Amino acid sequence: MKKHHQDIRDLIYVHLNQTDQYVISHGIEFDEFVSTFSGSLNNLLLLAHRYDDADFNMHTLLEYCPVDRINKLAADDVYGYGNFCWIDFLEEEVLNELTGQEMAELLYLGHHKHHLKLPFYNKLGNRFVYLAHDDGWFNKIYYRSFKDFFQLFSVVISHKLGELKPEKTLLGIRKKRTYPPVNKEILLSLTPFIKEGICISLRDADHQRTRIEVPIWVIGDFANMDDMYEEYLQASHEQYHAKIIFDKKTKEWKLNVM
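The structure corresponding to this sequence follows.
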């Protein structure tokens, strides 16, 4: 029942695993990830991809995307790659220091989308491990610091909301609305829910004259996004567990937990 690529854009699912330092998500895409962290990303060692402008590292026998080509990679049809997995690293020299054991762990990550040991390597200095299948449909991202996750989350919600309902100008030209990122304190206070697994549905947002109300359902822990989607469809007929509200006058977000 896999939905079309476009259907990814108005539903966000996130489930946070604190112990193993990863977040499973649906609805957050690589280009949104790149624009959130633009200027602070390092080189990407590509563990599974179909990008045709990568460099090759002789020691690992893997390709990598240098920092200055990340935007080009983000503009590619990453969704169409199928599997798209990478780990970031500081400079090419450090790849040549990886041991056979470490390379085996990285290949396992790219193949199974799961770790043998927590995948943070001091010699690589990586902040992330990004493991996606049909990018945006199923993503599993390891975060050295969950601060990065909450930054991404806050930006993506407001970005998607702006894309969903463009404003019409006097000449009838559609232009994107822009909303401020959701305050991280609001999202942090949702952490207990996020650890259970939540759906934020922009398609079900209630656009009123003075405010926009975006519903959130706690739906549980899913690794299969078809199952998650079925659960969302059922939950969406029931009372939401929380909503985030954008006040159009004060231009501020607030949270309402039921």
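The first strand starts at residue 11 and ends at 17.
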